[in-house]
Amino acid sequence: MNLLNLEKMVIAGPCALESREQLRGCVQVLKKMGVSMVRASLWKPRTQPGWEGLGWMSLPVLLEETIPHGMIPATEIITAEHALMVVHALEHSGPDARMIVWLGSRNQNHLEQKKIAKILATGPEGITFMFKNQMWDDERHWLGIHEHIITEGFPRERLMICHRGFCPGKAPNAKGYRNLPDFEMAMRIKEKTGLPMLLDPSHIGGSQANVLDICHQASDYNFDGYLIEMHGDPDNAKTDAKQQLTPGQLNGLLHTLRGAAVTKEVA
Hints:
The protein is an alpha/beta fold. It is 39% helix and 14% strand.
């Protein structure tokens, strides 16, 4: 099954994988909501020194607690070494195993981007590759990431993009967003590349209330899906505690998103 044929995909789960038990509970919750793609990052780049994730030793946990249960794991990779680990792990997960990996906004070393793309291109066909925009507001640079990946041979049919907003800097930010969205630019990038465009309201909003607000605003644009952080106990999350939704909040948001999609189809 080609993930990019799915309408309005939703990838949800904790900012970072904290334990096997956490992931097991998350999978159970998401399955009840009809969500089959679970995010849980293993490697966490930080603005300031802090907990950086469980790392490669928990890669087997991520795959074991998702793939056998009909779930598709999704995680951020930072280096070419991480890409190799993912490829080798997925090769041992069966011919039908699928996984989503993405490049985050902080990863703007184009030499590393190209290495990662080349490694993933040689890996199992079950790998879907996603790249986010860079942290600064620059449409040309965002398009450049796409070009670097494509020139290394990664198949377009397994490639997608994610908008996570741009660093506010000194720009007006009355609502206190963590990053400022540019929905129009995201739609231009989508049109120019011909690739699916997802939205990351968690890293744009920076708080639970803002995440919900951003999703409401984005409903006027043709995003192909959402990458949303959810945690069973957000107040005690090891990373991004303020912006991770509770399971109840996510469930309510999904009902709203799915209802809006039906309404637009009928209209």
